[in-house]
């Protein structure tokens, strides 16, 4: 008889706070599947799916995708993950999304990256991404080995349409208005853990220690036997 202990975590923070970068480190250090709402949307845009075509202009303008569309998309992806522990990045971004997630899953912990807006702005205009994997680079912080190419596949990197200074400003506004209330929502449930700083390499060891403690304590959902 094997008892499977599932861990369900969310990573939050304003655009450019390092969610993707830290999620990648978490994924490598702990056995968690990483699901990024932004990566899923960009894959839909690239594949020209109905959702991708409908949502492209909304995303390019720095607005949030409507809650019902986003929630359906993410819950379907989570169902596909089945009996795996996961880390959700970029969802929920509104209280309605958080409530819809809560209806189906018990969230064990929410890691919030509290990085000042001034730090973020210059990071995003020098962000380069590998679309199909979601790997992120930065021309100063973690440049690719060969400029413009992904380290693993050698495929071209792109700059996101929504990483222009004007759109970043709109995304930060959307974050303040729509996403910050989600932090209060999780704080009131007692699952919010805040990590403040301006450098990922200084924040990461604290996140690592925290998650190691959480996972070792077994203080999370035991889903039964398989
Ligand atoms: N200068 C600098 N750039 C960073 C740091 N951490 C992450 N980045 C870069 O900042 C950009 C945003 O990080 P990302 O993980 O994509 O943030 P997300 O939007 O919250 O998922 C990327 O280009 C990263 O490579 C850091 O500590 N310093
Ligand atoms: N949970 C969500 N709800 C609504 N829109 C979303 C959600 N996740 C992603 N998006 C859309 O995709 C864009 C890019 O998201 P993401 O890649 O997570 O950006 P970042 O991490 O830089 O904030 C958002 O600006 C928004 O338009």
TrEMBL record:
What residue stretch is flagged as signal peptide?
none
Catalyzes what? GTP + AMP = GDP + ADP; a ribonucleoside 5'-triphosphate + AMP = a ribonucleoside 5'-diphosphate + ADP
GO cellular component terms, A-Z: mitochondrial matrix
Positions annotated to bind AMP: 37, 42, 63-65, 90-93, 97, 160, 171
Going by the UniProt record, its keywords in alphabetical order are:
GTP-binding, Kinase, Mitochondrion, Nucleotide-binding, Transferase
InterPro entries registered for this protein in UniProt: Adenyl_kin_sub, Adenylat/UMP-CMP_kin, Adenylat_kinase_CS, Adenylate_kinase_lid-dom, ADK_active_lid_dom_sf, AK3/Ak4_mitochondrial, P-loop_NTPase
- Kinase as UniProt keyword: yes
Which Pfam families does the UniProt entry name for this protein? Answer: ADK, ADK_lid
In its keyword annotation, does this UniProt entry include GTP-binding? yes
Q: Which Gene3D superfamilies match?
A: P-loop containing nucleotide triphosphate hydrolases (3.40.50.300)
Where does the Adenylate kinase active site lid domain start and stop, copy by copy? 127-162
Q: What is its EC number?
A: 2.7.4.10
One example of a Gene Ontology biological process annotation: AMP metabolic process
The kind of enzyme this is, by top-level EC class, is: transferase
Task: Spell out the subcellular localization from the entry.
Answer: Mitochondrion matrix
* One example GO MF annotation: AMP kinase activity
Which residues lie within the region annotated NMPbind?
A: 36-65
**SUPFAM superfamilies in UniProt:** Microbial and mitochondrial ADK, insert 'zinc finger' domain, P-loop containing nucleoside triphosphate hydrolases
Binding residues for GTP: 16-21, 127, 136-137, 200
The ranges of region (LID) come to 126-163
Q: What is known of its domains?
A: Consists of three domains, a large central CORE domain and two small peripheral domains, NMPbind and LID, which undergo movements during catalysis. The LID domain closes over the site of phosphoryl transfer upon GTP binding. Assembling and dissambling the active center during each catalytic cycle provides an effective means to prevent GTP hydrolysis.
Question: What family does this chain come from, according to its entry?
Answer: Belongs to the adenylate kinase family. AK3 subfamily.
Function per UniProt: Involved in maintaining the homeostasis of cellular nucleotides by catalyzing the interconversion of nucleoside phosphates. Has GTP:AMP phosphotransferase and ITP:AMP phosphotransferase activities.
Q: Relate the assembly described in the record.
A: Monomer.
- This chain belongs to the protein called GTP:AMP phosphotransferase AK3, mitochondrial
Q: Which organism is it from?
A: Megalops atlanticus
The gene behind this protein is AK3
